[in-house]
Amino acid sequence: MTSRHRGPGTGPQPAGDQLALGFDQRQFDIAAIWQATGVYTAVPEIEALLDRLGWPVQGDRLLDPGAGNGGFLVAALARLDLARDDVAEAVRRVRGFEFYAAAVADARRAVRGHLLGRGWSPQAAAQAAQAIVEERDYLLDPVPAGEWDMIAANPPYWRLANLPGAYRIDYEAAVAPYARADMLYAYLARSADIVAAGGSVIAQDEATSVVWGMPGAAANAGICAAVLPLNQIAPKLVRFFAGDRS
Fold first, then answer.
1. Residue 26 is part of which domain span?
2. Cα angle: 182, vertex 96, 43; to 5 degrees
3. Do 101 and 207 lie in a common domain?
4. What is the pLDDT of residues 161-199, one digit of tens each?
5. Do 135 and 234 lie in a common domain?
6. CB 40 within 8 A of CB 3
7. Three-state SS for 38?
8. Residue percentage of the chain with pLDDT more than 70
9. Phi then psi for 160, rounded to 5 degrees?
10. I need a labelling partner for 60 at 20 to 30 A (CA). Which of 54, 151, 173, 226 fits?
């Protein structure tokens, strides 16, 4: 689960004059997509997901591919026993991608504030925040396979027909035809790439899902190592990290 999903935006809103005068076309397109998908996951939901993943006991490096306002990153960092000003270790353990510049700035402020609250120096906190939150597009940039052992995502639902023109051109060039119809499917295709590079996808089953949208699409695409009831996912992850891939 990321900190962004479908719905009306509740974070920083790009003003029309700013879009018209200060952004290039790509930034304008990204802002339009963000406005349609920019609802942030609540902290209790983030904590519940981290609990189910067993983070950080069961994982070493975690990526949030849609970092939003940084809520997920801060929660993940808060669970780590980091030495004061250990920028290298913080950056090694937790990373986030976000493609909307205003949200990148928000996420970096959130991470910096968290680290300052832990007694870090302003310089180290700022350096870590800058490196942890990358302004990158998870769908259009190279697949980050092999670098993280946890990639938790709740992709946005946004149809191909709704994508702004300039962004759509690059999206169609980067995403396989079978996955283009919705950004959800593009995220799943990226998951399949990660599987091909040695990762694993686990989906929640239909019986325990409120809406079997994203997990159902993953299951039907045949890219899952397992499709399980919600209460069996965490034990399965424990076995995966212990080396049991059966």
1. 16-155
2. 85
3. no
4. 999 988 999 999 999 898 899 888 888 788 777 766 666
5. no
6. yes
7. strand
8. 83
9. -55, -40
10. 226
**Dihedral through CA 234, CA 240, CA 243, CA 246, nearest 10?**
120
Q: In which residue are the tokens 């996912």 written? A: 233
Query: Which among 123, 155, 187 is the end of a domain?
Result: 155
Q: How far is 100 from 62, CA to CA, in rounded Å?
A: 20
Same domain (yes/no): 216, 120? no
Q: Are residues 45 and 141 in the same domain?
A: yes
> What phi, psi does 94 have (nearest 5°)?
-135, 135
* Alpha-helical regions (H) of the chain: 16-22, 25-37, 43-53, 71-78, 87-93, 101-117, 122-132, 165-174, 183-196, 214-221, 230-241
pTM confidence score = 0.76
In degrees, to the nearest 5, what angle opens at C-alpha 86 toward C-alphas 82 and 90?
65
Secondary structure of residue 180 in the 3-state scheme: coil
Edge-to-edge order in the sheet of strand 94-98: 133-135, 94-98, 62-64, 150-151
CA distance 139 to 136: 9
Q: What total number of domains does the chain contain?
A: 2
CATH number at residue 41: 3.40.50.150
